[in-house]
Amino acid sequence: MPELPEVETVTRALSRIVRRSKVKSVEIYRTDLRWKVPDDLKETLENDIFEEPFRRGKYILIPTEKGNILLIHLGMSGQIKIKDSIPTLLKHDHIRIIIENKTNHIFSITYNDPRRFGYVDYLNKVDIKKHFLLKNIGVEPFSEDLTKNYLHNIFKKKITNIKNALLDQKIIAGIGNIYASEILFKAKIKPHRNVNSLKSKDLELIIKSTKEILKKSIKKGGTTIKDHKQPDGKLGYFKQDLAVYGKENKKCIGCNNLIEVSIISNRSTFFCDYCQK
DNA sequence: ACACGCTCCTGAACGC
DNA sequence: TGCGTTCAGGAGCGTG
Q1: What is the pLDDT of residue A235?
Q2: What's the CATH class of domain A4-127?
Q3: Which active-site residues of A does the annotation give?
Q4: Fewer Cβ close by (within 10 Å): the C or N end of chain A?
């Protein structure tokens, strides 16, 4: 599923229930995710108390009172399910955390991931800049650090196209294959353009489009193509707002020409050859 | 140091 | 209906 808006949606849903809740039990059914889930995850988290969850790139981070942070990555097919009960386990439910909130209500948080490209880990709060998955992550799209100057300094040293650059988590955190196409359509820039051909005005449009597209998608609960569900089971409704992703041979909303698809670094990339320059 | 394929895995959709 | 093939929203790793 998940790019920034989907991960943000899940993080917000978690925020509503985990804050100041006590971890009653951690049930681990599979440890062979993208990397091996640490053996001491269970004993580390149990009896600790969750604080306010937050997101970094496509990672969900939940700090605890004892000074740790639970890290969840959803990979391609991961889902978080929140229930006010402890339901029967379903296929691909790999990890389940039972919590109790301040008013003694029990909730279950279940990590389900058919393809197991995702990951669950914990780290110490002081190591947040050192963890191997977090240390090289670039700026947050909504941060003030995402500026023309920032992009210009990176792009002048690069030989790649803007589509690949948007997918590169070391530059901007959180953009994936769907939103890369959508952002470039909105910015009217062809995905194949080399980054060092981009002018100041182009960078400005890319930054503006990035913020707008991601913000709007979060508002709609993300995009459900296949897997993504919000933790309460609801779908994400940004799909109906997609302008180019998955629209091959459909009319462009800007000019009525047909949307094209080309494979860039093995990923489908959708664009309008007329609107995007 | 960088850019680019390859790869991990399951399931759904498609073609014959 | 059944079977084989292709494709999927991520991203680290090995290679050149």
Answers
A1: 86
A2: alpha beta
A3: 2-3, 58, 267
A4: C
